[in-house]
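[recover] target loaded
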């Protein structure tokens, strides 16, 4: 397998986290399929996704078309981020998770059913974080001999682990009772993780790798003057600390990947939006997210067609072909 990969162009689809804003990413992929009359998944040899991007990646790997994933967000978003007690939970947010994990769990179980990671038709990479062990955790399909465990895990459990965002949902303990939280705490933009996986695990030369990286929109807020003085109130309560950390992490990963591969081999779609236009749980903004995806995918389609559409990925044959679907 490694010899074949060394001879071919190797293309990666990298999908950022962002809660309900994953609807933008899914809608972009759906529009590209409509415009170019193709299956975008056929262009990629590896798909990496964090948090909501991980849900999309799992869906693509298990045979869902982007349009079906869009429908998932539209149908399930109000149940996940709304619900009967959403106002009460919002009021209690300083003390409890903002949203019920059971609603997210139920939605993922309805969508993925009994499917396990090993049934993916694509190599997948899904970051999470092990809270108790204070260590990164990456779910990977069986694309190398040493990857002996993850392929047995139900897809819905992996989706829950990678998307259990701190403060929004409680910790996920569905996989071997490990305390897992959203992979976005360390790799919200998984582009660099995916490049390392291709280079180190699959032995693909850097010059053969190209990445299509899709974000969920970014805000360029004005950094208020009072942040200069430091302190818990100006940095913590305003959310500036989390925002700066997440943006810095994403930019760092993107810049390093571009340095390793060359800027011509990295295409990034991540539109700027107004401050406050979209939140991680903005369930009332579904139509606006789809409209924004329509606008930006129209501009991105020629770039995608030129840089990615001509490559047909080789069929993925997992190392372990006998999948145990009885694991729960």
């Amino acid at each position: 397998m490694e010899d074949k990969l060394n001879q071919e162009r190797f293309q990666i689809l990298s999908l950022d986290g962002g809660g309900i804003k994953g609807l933008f990413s899914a809608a972009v992929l759906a529009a590209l399929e409509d415009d170019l009359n193709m299956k975008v998944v056929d262009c990629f040899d590896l798909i990496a996704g964090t948090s909501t991007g991980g849900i999309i990646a799992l869906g693509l790997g298990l045979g869902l078309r982007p349009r079906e994933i869009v429908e998932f967000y539209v149908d399930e978003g109000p149940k996940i981020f709304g619900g009967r007690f959403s106002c009460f939970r919002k009021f209690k947010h300083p003390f409890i998770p903002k949203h019920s994990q059971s609603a997210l769990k139920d939605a993922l179980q309805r969508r993925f059913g009994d499917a396990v990671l090993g049934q993916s038709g694509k190599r997948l990479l899904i970051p999470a974080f092990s809270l108790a062990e204070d260590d990164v955790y990456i779910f990977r399909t069986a694309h190398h001999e040493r990857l002996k465990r993850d392929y047995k895990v139900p897809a819905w459990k992996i989706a829950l682990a990678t998307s259990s965002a701190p403060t929004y949902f409680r910790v996920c303990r569905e996989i071997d009772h490990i305390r897992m939280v959203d992979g976005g705490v360390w790799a919200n933009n998984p582009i660099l993780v995916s490049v390392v996986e291709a280079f180190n695990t699959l032995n693909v030369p850097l010059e053969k790798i190209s990445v299509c990286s899709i974000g969920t929109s970014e805000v360029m807020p004005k950094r208020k003057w009072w942040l200069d003085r430091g302190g818990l109130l100006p940095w913590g309560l305003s959310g500036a600390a989390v925002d700066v950390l997440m943006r810095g992490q994403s930019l760092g990963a993107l810049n390093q990947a571009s340095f390793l591969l060359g800027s011509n081999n990295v295409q990034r779609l991540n539109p700027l939006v107004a401050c406050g236009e979209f939140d991680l749980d903005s369930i009332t903004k579904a139509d606006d997210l789809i409209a924004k995806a329509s606008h930006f995918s129209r501009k991105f389609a020629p770039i995608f067609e030129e840089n990615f559409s001509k490559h047909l990925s080789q069929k993925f044959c997992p190392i372990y072909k006998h999948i145990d679907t009885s694991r729960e």
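[recover] notes: Residues 61 and 121 are 5 Å apart (CA to CA).
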